[in-house]
Design goal:
five-stranded mixed sheet
Length: about 325
């Protein structure tokens, strides 16, 4: 769900504070938008991310987006900064992308410097999960909070940690790997990261498909056919129809997620934990078991944290990028 604050603004209503050009570079799609200091979208576009060996092709795509927005007239009050979120490990101080598994051309590339030299604008660079956390804090489910954790349940499990209103990057910019928190250390399922029992292998869309295949022999009358192209969405639809295999899979998924969230609560004492990503659509199938495990394993006082589904949807990263671009000069 997208909040009303994310609805398009009319050019005449754009405040004197100007606009930020926010860009979310994904492995499949590149999304860009001009956003005002109230979190309103003035112009936006979505296109395929250039699949290339040259990082210059991605900087060219961002430059073209800026030109398009300026030609449309929606940016007539002026773009004051460019803010980009990218999936991967970044050196946010230098603006260099260290690793980007789905965007290999950007690995080792100083994207901030390249864009600054081309566009003559201040450039901010942030990890996409951290951007989503900032977006939810600014205009989403954690609005009004200063200490939050955002957990994204998609193909994998991502995370962003915001403490006292600032992204927590850690000692070497690798904080927030929530998906690789160990929730089943002994005999747990192997994870692609090289460890075992990571939250990602129990709470992601990929995990839901795997657990459904594993459980299928115990549920011969299941509505889930478990074909080659079987997806987590198929499991969700079956669960909504009362299918016992699907209900069991989401119960198990919620159990492991709850253990992971309890650990986060005990360590960080956040005001809110926001759950986003495609798997969060199945909230009604896993939330009860998730909350039960939180209640069992979190200390009573920090367990008062609110755990809520994300509200900004695909706009979270763009909103977070814009918020970072405005710095302290934003409107409530």
């Amino acid at each position: 769900m997208t909040l009303p604050a994310s609805s398009p603004a009319q050019p005449d209503s754009v405040p004197d504070g100007g606009l930020v050009l926010a860009v979310d570079i994904g492995g499949t799609h590149l999304r860009a938008a001009t956003i005002d200091c109230h979190g309103r979208f003035v112009s936006q576009l979505k296109q395929r991310t250039p699949q290339t060996k040259s990082p210059q092709d991605i900087t060219n795509a961002i430059t073209a987006a800026l030109t398009q927005f300026q030609n449309e007239g929606g940016a007539r009050n002026g773009i004051r900064a460019l803010s980009v979120v990218v999936p991967g490990t970044l050196d946010v101080k230098t603006g260099t992308i260290i690793t980007a598994p789905n965007l290999s051309s950007l690995a080792g590339f100083n994207l901030s410097r390249a864009l600054t030299e081309t566009l003559r604008l201040p450039v901010m660079l942030e990890n996409d999960a951290n951007g989503a956390a900032i977006g939810e804090m600014w205009r989403g489910a954690a609005r009004g909070c200063r200490h939050i954790v955002c957990v994204t349940l998609g193909t994998g499990v991502g995370g962003g940690i915001v403490l006292n209103g600032k992204v927590w990057h850690g000692a070497n910019n690798s904080a927030g790997e929530i998906g690789h928190m160990c929730v089943e250390p002994f005999g747990g399922v192997a994870c692609a990261c090289g460890s075992r029992g990571c939250l990602e292998v129990y709470a992601s869309a990929t995990a839901i498909v795997r657990m459904s295949r594993e459980a299928r022999p115990r549920y011969p009358n299941s509505l889930s056919s478990v074909t080659e192209d079987f997806t987590a969405e198929d499991v969700y639809r079956a669960g909504k129809q009362g299918d016992q295999l699907a209900i069991e899979v989401f119960r198990r998924m919620g159990s492991y997620l709850g253990v992971g969230l309890a650990n986060l609560i005990n360590i960080l004492n956040p005001e809110a934990i926001v759950i986003g990503g495609g798997v969060a659509s199945a909230w009604d199938l896993f939330a009860k078991e998730m909350q039960s495990q939180v209640n069992k394993h979190a200390f009573p006082l920090p367990a008062q944290v609110k755990i809520v589904p994300a509200e900004c949807g695909d706009d979270a990263g763009l909103l977070g990028a814009a918020r970072l671009g405005f710095g302290d000069e934003i409107a409530d």
